[in-house]
Amino acid sequence: MPRIQIGSWANDAVNWLRDNLDWLFNLITTVLNGLYDAIHAVLAAPAPLLLAGILAVLAWWLRGLPAAVLTFLGFALIDSIQQWSPTIESLSLVLVACLITVVVAVPLGIWAARSRVVGGILRPVLDLMQTMPAMVYLIPGILFFGLGVVPGIVATIVFSMPPAVRMTELGIRQVDGELVEAAEAFGTHPRSTLLRVQLPLALPTIMAGINQVIMLALSMVVIAGMVGGGGLGASVYNAISSVNVALGAEAGLAVVILAMYLDRMTGALNQRVSPLGRRALAKAQAALGRWKFLQWRPATSVAMVGVVVLALLAGGMSFLGKSGDAASGGNGKPITLGYVNWDEGKATTYLWKEILEERGYKPKVQALEAGPLFAGQARGDIDVQTNAWLPTTHAEYWNKYKDKLEDLGTWYDKTSLEIAVPSYVKDVKTLDDLKGKAAEFGGKITGIEPGAGEMKILKDKVLKDYGLDGEYQVQESSTASMLSELDRAVHKKKPIAVTLWSPHWAYDKYPLTKLKDPKGAFGSGDGLHMLGRKGFSKDMPEVAKWMKNFHLDEKQLTSLENDIKSAGEGHEQDGVRTWLKKNPGLVEKIAPSAHATYAKGKDAGKAPNIGYPAWDEGIATAYLWNNVLKKRGYQPNLRNLDVGPMWTGLSTGQIDVETDGWLPVAQKQYWDKYKNDLVDLGPWYDKTSLEIAVPSYVKGVKTMDDLRAHKDEFKGKIIGIEPGTGEMQRLKSTVLPAYGLSDFEVTSAGTSAMLAELDRAYHKQEPIAVVLWSPHWAYSKYHLTKLADPKGTWGANNQIKTLGNKDFPKKFPEFSGWLKNWKMSADELGSLEKDIQDAGKGNEDKGVEKWIDGHPGIVDQMAPVK
User: Fold this and answer.
1) Rg for the chain (alpha carbons), in Å?
2) Model's pTM, two decimal places?
3) Where is the ABC transmembrane type-1 domain positioned along the sequence (predicted)?
């Protein structure tokens, strides 16, 4: 019978969809990422035990006191075994997937229940969705959406949707037909019949379907960890790939606890939302007798109060704890490092993670199979991988994706692929010697990951060239499983043949024989290459330059692997740090810093908390001092706060110092309230001003008086900022009436909107009048005229002062002395603000570094060290 090319058709269909509907997949990715980030931000915000308390209150409301106690203990246990963050990631992913699934599945189920045709069409589709192996959904998910949470969410939705559709349809169909007929007989609209009769009676069945959705979603979330979905799935995958019993037990236990909680809570939810469920609950409680108190459940209002109180407590605890710190050098720029869980790949990946962190970047590592790793890198989801075996082992992936990758060069040459046997196995020295000895080796060769290039070469070429393909079976597993089998066999002195490669630490640990390959079936050996995604060198030239010059010899690599292995799973960077201590100066050799070396201050190591409001001069000066202090060896923490909470934090000592106190006018009320708990370290900018500004190309407008005659030119409008600011209030109540300008319209869309309007008008050379103040970076970016205020209606000018907690000079005497002598001019501050604006949100340190490079000697001027 001729072969039916279903696989090829499916591949062509996927390629067509990817090539023609990329815009749709990008939109879905953006929406799902946004939804996931929002839910994860809410769940990750409270301290672990506070969130455990919130979940316990919900359990008390739904199932009673014993369930609440067990919930708290269960989630406290998850926190104690250091699986809290992965659990929250998995819970977020489940909630997103289930939310979308229920929104789609319940209407489909209702439609199927009301239409036999729809039900008949949906049934085989649901059968396909439900019976297709779950991992298959990950393949198109990677191609359409790349790596990360989105393919996991999409695959989870597809896999978990059928039960919700089926149970909704079943629940609607099971409603007594006579009840429906009675409703219709009384003239009830079909929509009302559905909402008031069928859905309430079908609710228990629908809730059972939703319960199944959640359970299936959780199982799929774990599988999604294989494609970078994160969470407990990643922990389980790492445990499996490294045969780590401890990590597997802990991650598995966290999955069980989360699954039990979600199962019990969704199962009990029906008793709260269904009239039938509430009656059944009341009967069950009545039958408990004296133990009835255990099943007492608070009213919904009481439970909500408890949840809100705990949530507010969580918010209050974290309110003053938000930090905006970013390291110097890399300026906090993120880099994603992918690796196949092979020893040299893991070792070099975590080595680069440590180096990049020292240089101020924010690297993230992701363990993946070879196929998803190359595919993800080709899509741009992975920036770099350190362990591409070329030109042989990974030739299949390189040939497929090389147009979307950059070869950053070879850091180790040359490797070899081989079959190895223990040295106590006699008369087996070459691959030819394996022939006829299958019984001795149990008829198998113990392999590694099925997607590894070595496995493909072994099965497609090596076994055939040596006539072993009918005699030996290649057992696919993982590198860690293969090494575990090798260890067990060596200790029992049993014959075993394993796939290995050089370099590998196993040759130091065990007495092994590399089987010679006289026919050259494994190839001539590979180099270990660094590969970057397309455009990586352009986006990160400094890192690309470091990586192109990176080399390790066999002794360095094997010792690094051994230190990482000794540190244990989950402590890879500790192993890297141990190795780097044995190799002093290597970090500077691998990644030479482009920045000057600065002398350490006498209080180096101290960690002052620096607060700042989201005002341009506050952001600029806080990040400037953050950079300067790090150069002097301090470990500052930045905290972005509103003005009121920041003054409160200063008075209590939670904030040590802030650089943006506008006195004696603008922030007088705060100073009067807290001055006994504060210290004034003096002004660093003198003096500020409030004003209306117009572009310099607007002729004949130099003072506030000139605006009257040019009203039509400005369309009778002044572009303002936030309506609650003191400047806006003074403008409307004092300035405009004094100059007879009350008939001008003052917009109040906010500072960002005002600056956007200024930028638009400036580029079109249109007249515009805006509310501004000095200092402000706009005066550095645009040619503007400050309108003179001959009547003095804007009031007295402020100084910008540095304020500290009263204990600040004692805790940080050196830093305090620097601040007392610090001054900035209008040009210096304006150019600093402009460089930060140009760098963009999240890259403030990059802007500061650029400004410091343009002002040589400024660090020594601001923070002199003898």
Assistant:
1) 33
2) 0.49
3) 87-266
